[in-house]
Structures are given as C-alpha cells and as structure tokens.
Amino acid sequence: MIFEGLATKLQGALARLRGKGKLSEADVTEAAREIRLALLEADVNYKVVKDFVTRLKERAIGQEVLSSLTPGQQVVKIVDEELTALLGGTQARLNLSSRPPTVLMLVGLQGSGKTTQAAKLARHLQKQSRRPLLVAADVYRPAAIKQLQVLGEQLSVPVFTLGAHTAPPDIAAAAVDHARSHDLDQVIIDTAGRLQIDEPLMQELVDVKSRVHPHEILLVVDAMTGQEAVAVAETFHTRLGVDGVIMSKLDSDTRGGAALSIRAVTGCPIKFAGVGEKLDALEPFFPDRMAQRILGMGDVLTLIEKAQESFDAQHALEMQKKLRRDEFTLEDFGQQLKQVKKLGPLEQVLGMIPGLAGRMKELKNLQVEEKDLAHVEAIIGSMTPGERRNPEILNASRRRRIARGSGTRIQDVNRLLKQFEETKRMMRQLGSLEKGMGKGPGKGLRPFQ
Question: How far apart are the C-alpha atoms of 240 and 267, rounded to whole Å?
C-alpha cells in the first residue's frame, strides 16, 4: 500500500483517540507526539513536521474539540485537513494551451524515470482524446532515444528525433514545428538527466526552455529518495521555475517523506503520481484523496474512476445480478480476476475501499500475481461444469484430479477456492457500501459486484 509504514502508525495513533468519549489536553499531546515521530520516521522534512504538529495541537486543544461530543473524530478530521493542506490542498491540473500545441518539458535526474513517465503522460493525454508527440531530446544516455521509440510504438504515439548528434534545444524547436504542421496538440519533451545536478545540465535545460517556452515544466522525482528528492526539486525550481512534480514510484514508497515535504518546501505542487510499471499507471494527484488513503478512509472516487475506465458496463451488470441471486460461479471469478487486474495491484484497490484499507494482512490471500492467472485458468478449465457452478462438491479426490489435469499442486487448487470465497465476501461488502451511499457516487461501484 502507498505510504504503508506511515499510514499504519498514523492510524494507530488516531485509533486510540477515536475510542475515547472525552479527551484531555494530555491525550492530544501524546497523540501529537506519536504523529510527530511517525512523520520523522517517514523522512518528512523536520521543519515541515514541526509546523504540522504545531498547527495540529493548536487546533486540537481548542475548546471546540475538547468539549465536543465526539472529540476523537474531531481530531481525526483536523489531521485529515492538515494532511490535505500539506500535500497541496487542491488538485493542480496541467496548464493546457488554448492554442495548440501545448509544450510539456520533463526534467529531472538520471534514473528518476523521466522517459517512462513521458510515455505514461502521453497515454494519460491519449485517454483525453489528445494527440501527443513524444520528443527524444536526451542525446547522452545510451539507448534513451530507442527506449522512447519502443514506448511510443506500444502506445501508437509518434516519436520525434533528430538523432544523437543534434543539440537538444534544436531538437525541441524542430519538434514543436513538426507538431504544429502535423496537427498534434501536445508536445512532451524528454530531456537529459545526470547522476547529480551540474552546471552543464542546468544550462542545457535553460537553453531548451528559452527556445520553446514550454507551457509546463514538470520535474520527475523518485519518491523512494525521500529528502534528496526535495533538495533536487529546490535546485531545479530555482533555476528553471518548475510548474509541477511527477512523483514516480509512489506505489513503492512506504514512507512518504518526499510527497509530504515537497510542496511545503518548494511550493511546487505534485500533479501526477506513478503508481506502477504499466503505461496506464499514472494518476492525477489529489491531495484530499491521498490524505484519506493515508488515514485508512479509502479513496472511493479514484476507485470509481478506475472502474469506469476498465470495466465493461454490460458485463458488470450481469455480474451484479448473479451475485444478488447467489449465482456467482468460479468461471465468473476467473473473468472478474482479469477485470480487477486492469485496475492495478489488488493491494492498491483494497486500500481505496473504506473499512478494508486497514485489513491488508487479513485479505492477503486475495493477492493474485500476473503469472498466477494462467494457473487460475488452467485449474478452472480442469473442472466439470457442475464443479464450477457448485464448488462445495469439490472433495479431496476431485481436487487431486483437478490438480493433475491443470499441471498444478493441490495446494494451488485449495488456494484458488479460498480466494473465490473471500472475493465473494468482499463483493458483498462493496454491495453494502453502495447501498449505504444511496443514489450518489456509489453507483460507480457496481462493476465490482
């Protein structure tokens, strides 16, 4: 789960407050101390932590909270609001020009994932019916141009290059002219990086900026590098005037120091988060939704948006009816696994569901790796139609036969059946969640039922 270490500690500190009917100033002070330690251990900037805890205590020790009928919930609400503010407050959108092409310039250190994030950004714009052009302006890193061309082919996005012997400012300027003449409305420039910031690198980026006047300069930083990412952002922002940050590898960051510090220290908003290896794994960054994920409140809106992108509405409706009639079979389960995998790692999906975010260990048996899907298909394919419809008849001898027929072990068959039962339970919980939400946004959860 994103920010797993930080989330666990913050949720633990707040859980102790939730259970109390009355709060004293000492209770708030103790919780604030735990929150301070959790943030410092997550590698959040010291000054940011100090200011955060000071604001939290000032608000939480106020008469409005301590005399409230639900003081613990009031403190949780304050922490949620302060976390949201720390992460940027509101979503920072891309500045797209009304007169195409919009020029987006990606900068950052070597190894931060600029080239991959450029392709992911192109995919994101594609889904909005934009026509992007990827520009290979990194002429120094071996195979950088080829890497971008391969990614462009996967997305059916054109890649502009003049080879490794042309100066990057000339490549960028020619690419903008090419986009204008070929009716392409987004130009994404993949610039060179270095292992560390140096003057030749910065001057080259300044020269590219001067030639093409990008509408957005997006800094790609590796979330895993913590405070180093914040220092890098400060330097780039001072020299170039960065408009926003793409936080790569956020799905692998259990601490959260960079994401929680970068806006407060540099003033640069996080605009996108890389949350996986696939080219679809780039999400717009919503501070309020991320704060809710960290605090275990889930992120239903993002879940709905992902589901609407990934699920076939007619198929989802059929699954919903089957579940309500208790006719959900193992064949349906196999199809649903394929659908759910489109949403990204299942652990991330569970983290977006209110009430399930804190139950990762309990639900770990639901985790399905990509390679396991072939085993699932083989196991289900080795069953008779009656066994698929009624798994209760699968005794030991039937399970051994299925394992032999699918080329798997009996443990694999048992695990699949356990996953099937747990998935049915999870889907029923989602159905209850939808009913609790009435006719509002919960309608978007139907694909999971």
Answer: 14
Neighbours of 213 (CB within 10 A): 10
Which pLDDT tens digit goes with each residue over 76-118?
888 899 999 999 988 899 988 888 899 999 999 988 889 999 9
Tens of pLDDT along 259-272? 888 888 888 999 99
For residues 335 and 341, give the distance between their C-alpha atoms in angstroms, rounded to a whole number.
10
187 phi/psi in degrees, rounded to 5: -115, 120
Instruction: Judge contact between 424 and 391, C-beta under 8 A.
Output: no
Give the predicted TM-score (pTM) of the model: 0.71
Sheet holding 216-222, edge to edge: 159-160, 132-136, 186-190, 102-107, 216-222, 244-248, 270-274, 282-284
Place of tokens 């009928």: 69
Query: Using CB atoms within 10 A of its CB, is residue 161 exposed (0-12), middle (13-18) or buried (19+)?
Result: buried
Q: What share of the chain is helix, strand, coil (3-state, %, to 5)?
A: 60, 10, 30
> At the fourth CATH level, which superfamily is domain 4-86?
SRP54, nucleotide-binding domain (1.20.120.140)
CATH homologous superfamily for the domain 300-448: Signal recognition particle, SRP54 subunit, M-domain (1.10.260.30)
